[in-house]
């Protein structure tokens, strides 16, 4: 139960941060373009963000947008593994 709630909360936070990033990057909904719109993705993408130095400069914002998905995938896999152990 705790694992499922944690995964859902993380997914919602990731979705909100991703929408903020895309809105600021492309100026959706009449917003001005903001280069710092992806700042909310950084803490959600740790520790993968530290690998961003290996990615080319134009790909860094997109890597920052995808990095939290790796953590979400890890949470889902850990929850499935824990559920199998309990059965």
How would you sum up this structure in a few lines?
The two termini are 14 Å apart.
Plain-language structure description:
By secondary structure, the protein is mainly α. The chain has one domain. Helix content is 66%, strand content 0%. The chain has three helices and no strands. Helix 1 (2-26) packs antiparallel against helix 3 (60-86). The two termini are 14 Å apart. The model has no long low-confidence stretch (mean pLDDT 92).
Outline the fold blueprint.
Layout: H1 2-26, H2 41-45, H3 60-86
Helix pairs in contact: 1-3
Q: What brief labels describe this structure?
A:
87 residues; mainly alpha; 3 helices; 0% strand
Number of domains: 1
Order of helices and strands, N to C? HHH
Poorly predicted segments: none
The level of helicity is: 55-70%
Number of DSSP helical runs: 3
Average predicted confidence as pLDDT = 92
Class based on secondary structure composition and strand pairing: mainly alpha
Total E-strand runs: 0
Distance between the termini: 14 Å
**Biggest sheet character:** none
Strand content: under 5%
Q: How would you describe the shape?
A: flat
